Amino acid sequence: MMDGLTIDSGLRREPVSQLNEASVPGRRGWRLGAAPGAPHDRDEETGFLEAAAPDRGLFADRPPALPELSELDVVRHFTRLSALNYAVDGGFYPLGSCTMKYSPRINENCAALEAFTELHPLTDPADCQGLLALFHELESKLNLLLGYQRFSLQPAAGAQGEFVGLLVIRAYHEDRDDHERREILIPDSAHGTNPASAAAAGFDVVVLPSDADGRLRAGTVRRAAGPRTAGLMLTNPNTLGLFEHEVREIAAAVHEAGGLVYYDGANANAIIGRVRPGDMGFDVCHLNLHKTFSTPHGGGGPGAGPVGVRAGLEQFLPGPLVVRRSDGSFAWEEPAQSAGPVHAWYGNSLVLLKALAYIRTLGGAGCREASGMAVLNANYVLRSLDDLWEPAKPGPVMHEAVLTGKPLRDRTGLGTLDVAKRLIDYGFHPPTMYFPLIVPEALMIEPTETESRETLDRFVAAMRRIHAEMLDEPDLLRQAPQHAAIGRPDEARAARRPVLTWMQQERAEPEI
Ligand SMILES: *Cc1c(COP(=O)(O)O)cnc(C)c1O
Questions:
Q1: Separation between Cα atoms, residue 363 and residue 456, nearest integer Å
Q2: Which residues pair with 232 in a beta bridge?
Q3: SS (H, E, C) 54-82
Q4: Which domain holds residue 299?
Q5: Is residue 233 part of a domain?
Q6: For a disulfide at 397, which of 79, 241, 327, 428, Cβ 3.0-4.6 Å?
Q7: Closest atom, ligand 1, to C-alpha of 303
Q8: Are residues 119 and 131 in contact, defined by beta-carbon separation less than 8 angstroms?
Q9: Which of 288, 297, 435, 444 to mutate to test the pocket of ligand 1 (most atoms within 8 A of CB)?
Q10: To which H or E segment does residue 150 belong?
Q11: What is the pTM of this model?
Q12: What is the model's pLDDT at position 491?
């Protein structure tokens, strides 16, 4: 076809047989002969070697109900399953707010060195000076890139970083005997984790309305801030992909009221090497190393959400922190008034090492170039589609483009969900949908800096073709995806009545 598109997601629509269904009584992976003279009996029926333990009463009276299969059956089963999963390594994954960019293999290789993977957390600091030196270097580089005094590397995710940052804000006010500050101000465009973290940290959430152009105004903050304000949480660029122009005035308004300003740095991909939240007036910030600094993520996989603070707040961070002694050696140290540990040991150390490898391989200039490419790519997609899809707010945008499918839904009856499902047929992972909540029929596209122009052009061509299909062949969207492993699951049922095991399918389904 002219635009090089094919209707093939690469995912065959075949039922995936369960291992239990493929089970054949007596089939085995391997058969081991009993070692000569070994104190084992072979169970004739199951083939299992059973230790000739003195107390056979402790044994189960029958072998476990596991599927009986050859090794090849098992290898093929899991290899097929892995190919049914959509991943960045397989194709374009423009999931807005998630920064699903490609993570160079060199970072994986560095973190996979045995010297790191085989270290025990209880190793004496004297015997792992190299690791401590690297953590110290990572912290110094994050301080420099973001404009902070200290970073705790311990939090394991963005949401946990937010929670830690809020504990730091609480500790700051309590340390000043200022106990009335129970409120956290959060704009209505915020990621859902912001109000959730504030509530989890014991604060009341005050939602601030964004302006018609999708930004928070300093006047709105000034009116809301007062003696009950503990702080404000702000994402910049915000979840509409827009830079908050009044960020300095907003920070000043919160500070004048006695509160602190928190930077949700999950979108730092757009600003690294260009502006620093520390310079924009943010007292506390978290980063998503698994978005901005090279760790593939999704499915709740291991991440890191380090928390940075300006001078004067470092004593409240969770410890331990790495310090450099006057003799040049490194040691662990607990901050004096720490809000307490939030993770075992030092955090997800291998994710931290990948981030350092990423920063080192790119250097300062490379990080700056990466954020520039992220912004360029998002604007390229926006401008390639804005004659067909209405931008949620006037651009230009930063690292992601938010479109609204509302006019198209009014015209065709087809919504953003239908567009997303049809994109699967064209082999793309759908963008984030229906978020931010303030945009009706939102489609939030974050191409990231690691995609080529050719890939972006293919995605744009698919979107334009889908637009034509919406008008001419709407059933193609209604029935999509037709070329995926499964069609459209009933999402409410999947959430409320999840079938997580093979056994469960055989039981009568409980009433919702
Ligand atoms: C991803 C994200 C978070 C949460 O990060 P997790 O690591 O998923 O907990 C918070 N805020 C914004 C803006 C995000 O995009």
A1: 26
A2: 185, 261
A3: CCHHHCCCCCCCCCCCCHHHHHHHHHHHH
A4: 106-361
A5: yes
A6: 241
A7: 7
A8: yes
A9: 288
A10: strand 150-152
A11: 0.87
A12: 83
Q: Does ligand 1 lie within 6 Å of residue 157's CB atom?
A: yes
In a domain, 228, yes or no: yes
- Any domain includes 28: no
How is residue 508 written in tokens? 């009568």
3 state SS of 110 = helix
Average pLDDT, 10 consecutive residues per value, the chain (512 residues)? 58 63 87 59 57 65 86 89 84 95 94 94 94 97 98 95 97 97 97 97 97 96 98 97 96 98 96 96 97 82 92 96 96 92 90 97 96 98 97 95 97 97 96 95 97 98 98 97 86 85 52 49
Q: Report the pLDDT value the prediction gives residue 438, as an integer from 0 to 100.
A: 93
355-375 burial, b if ≥16 CB within 10 A, otherwise e? bbbbbbebeeeebbebbebbb
Distance 462 CA to ligand 1 centre (A): 28
Give which of 114, 152, 141 is closest to 130, Cα–Cα.
114
Q: What DSSP line would sit under 334-366, residue for residue?
A: --TT-----SSTTS-HHHHHHHHHHHHHHHHHH
Flag whether 382 is in a domain: no
- Mutation probe of ligand 1 site: the residue of 98, 99, 191, 444 with most atoms within 8 A of C-beta: 191
- CATH code (residue 115): 3.40.640.10
Q: What is the pLDDT of residue 302?
A: 84
Name every residue whose Cβ is closer than 8 Å to that of residue 265 and which is 6 or more positions away in sequence.
146, 277, 285, 286, 287, 288, 292
Number of domains in the chain: 1
- 470-489 pLDDT tens trace: 999 999 999 999 988 788 88
